[in-house]
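User: What would this chain look like folded?
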Amino acid sequence: MRQEISFDADSKDPQLFISLADSHVKKNKDQELICLYQAMFYADDKEQVKDIEKRIDTLTGEGVVVPKTSFIILSYNTLYFTKQCLASIKNTVPLDRCQIVVVDNASSDGSVEYLRTLDWITLVENHENRGFPGGCNDGIAAADKGNDIYLLNSDTLMPYNAFFWLKMGLYENEKTGSTGSITNFATESQMVKRNWKSVDEMFDFSAENNVPMRYPYEYRMFLIGFSLLLKRTVLDDIGYLDERFNPGNSEDIDICLRILKSGHLNVLCRNSFVIHFGHRSFEELQKQGTDFGNLLQKNNDKLNAKYGFDVLKGLSLNVNAVRNLKGERTDAIRILDTDVGMGATAAVIKTYFVNAEYSGFEKDGDSACYAQAFGRIIAYDPRTADCKKLFSEEYFDYIIAGRSFEGFEPSDVTSHFGAYLKEGGRICLPNGLVLKKDTHKDSPEALYREKIMNRKTRPSELVENDGKRRIVFLLYKAASWDSYASIWRASQNDSQTHAIVISLPYYDKRPDGRPGEFHYEGDLLPDDVPVTWYADADLSRMTPDAVFINYVSESDVIVPPQYEFSVIRECTETMVYVPDEVLSISYGRHIDEQVLRQKRLIHTSAIEAADIVCLENRDQERILKEEFPLLESDKFIVTGSPQHDIMLSNEKTVIPDEWRDIIGDRKVLLYSMRTEDAVEAGDKLIQKLESLFSFMRFVSDRIALIFRPDPSLEGLLENNHPDIAARYKDLIVRYRSEHWGIYDDGIDKYISLRTADAFYGDVSPDMMLFLSSGKTAVMQDYGIPLPDACSMTRIPLPDVSFPYGAALQETDDTAIVIYIGLLLTEKLPGKERKISRAGEKIYGLVKSKGN
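Assistant: Here's the prediction, encoded as structure tokens.
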């Protein structure tokens, strides 16, 4: 469900819709015709009108027919809102393509008398309140035969193009049965959360939102009935709204589930924003004694009784499974889900992997029928199914082991499904752990070895005595390559040196201390870096002149013992420690030095083992000499930082297109956590993230958020706080699905660091690196949630000055100023960028020592 065209244009310019029609000529003639009808609505040039009419006549002559639409609007003592709603429709919708049906449910506020004066609507006058389902059915019965049906609340306003994009979504393909809008007032799944100050502000937002988008569509299990467009052919097949839910609520869930059961899809259109005031008719019922809370519960009970199970529970999402799927949006991955339920997980997967092939089991046949719209669903128990008759071997990229396998040993799951998983494919277990398939008998690493054979250095070159220096770079996490990049480049350019890069394997450490999942990231290093397979490189035979290390002994991973510092030390003349984390404390007036010591940004094991320790500045040298008074002071050498060289480089930052769509012309805030601090925070981590996301939604019209967590955080939370890990994953899934912020899980952290205007989060190497660019950072306090969005406008801004290139400590008094003051009122001075050329300096140390 991909819409490629995206460009800036006047949203009421007919040429925009002609261009859209052109883009659909060969792809979708229904959508081409819809675009031409919209172009006709806006066109006022006679020649242009003739050209559009000619194209329309050509398409209709070829048999292309898109039904007209009947708007069904219920009126019940909402005269003020009904007038506004109808006026907005008349102003923004081509009435020659639409029938406006208004059903009055026995209003007593003069609504009927007013509606009788409108000759452009079809009026249905009920003499009793038939409720929302009943009134809608009366309107559908009065609609012109064959028209699509658009259920629209009377307390809405129709911005330009909101209905157009719903219609485009409905005819994206034959499987679409309904489309719905986003709005300012609805349940969270369809609501744009902002502190809306006026209707004008909502219309301004709609002008920016109701435009061509690359990925406007999301599959949903159900859509809210305030703005719900139904394909007439589907509606005639499944029946109208169920009047057992009178006076209203749950009828929209019910009809959408019936759409799924018929094999069709419910699609949320994110480029259709409709203004909604909310619950106006129900307020009238409340005045008459109806308890809204009791009504919700009563109709929910009716829904469960109709379907024979807890529907809302059946609509739950397997958050772990969704989070563990990796790849690009257009990747044609194959997925097998052992417990499909009603299809909520499938809906999200098919949204984010538009070309995914989804298959699954659901032993409850009553639930399975609703998921069939998303793929091949087998109504059978996955634990006893004969998979040999169902699937080809090595077919799936992912197998999601759901609730049927809770409590099973991983080996039981792999023995049952492993044969049907591709080499390198993954099994997602119920507890969130992921198993990677590798059938090579020699070692679990063989798959990775094959990947880098075409770019490795020959073993003979490593031991051949040709008089050249041998400089070895050891690392295990690809993200740490930035600390080596410029040093390696300097050695690679030296004709008298063999520069040898060895990427080490590592294992996750399980809570019991045993090795967990195997990892190898050599294949993630830049393409121009030749990587030597670690098993082919025997340091004791190679006797390198120098070995560079940038890793330390970490508590959460296990590195093979042959790469412990004591072993490496026996194989080389010079061991050089280049920290993979920026340790700079040159901002000491803003960051207490003890913070750096307490955060263990000084790694004792690496410093004690190395012959040379490369430092960034004199302040760092002073502190390290105080920390290690017994070590030779000449091992500490101030060289600058290769990471700073990258951060301050004049090279243009290439921002992904999807980021540009979100950022626009807004300021950018980068939020990042230090893994150890986040794990230690426990419940406060979730509270902080919830308040952060709520706050940033509120200011998202002015500030774009980039959230860049450490990729190891999820695993550590699962090992230490499984309950918090589940809540964390749920938060991330929701954040990513709302599309107002950016989730950065890429290898290259410098895209975020160089794009952001300000940094917020834990004291960390990334914060230090960010500060080096002269921008301002704010140290978070997990104990201080951000202000509630509803109260923010009432918080006065204290007179706080923001030091240039400073890190501020978050306090109760500054929480709001940090964001609004820093990003909107402060103008930081420019800074002359001084590149230290640290890589050449560090390599020069080794070269001189070798001579």
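The chain has a mean pLDDT of 82. If you want, I can go into more detail on any region.
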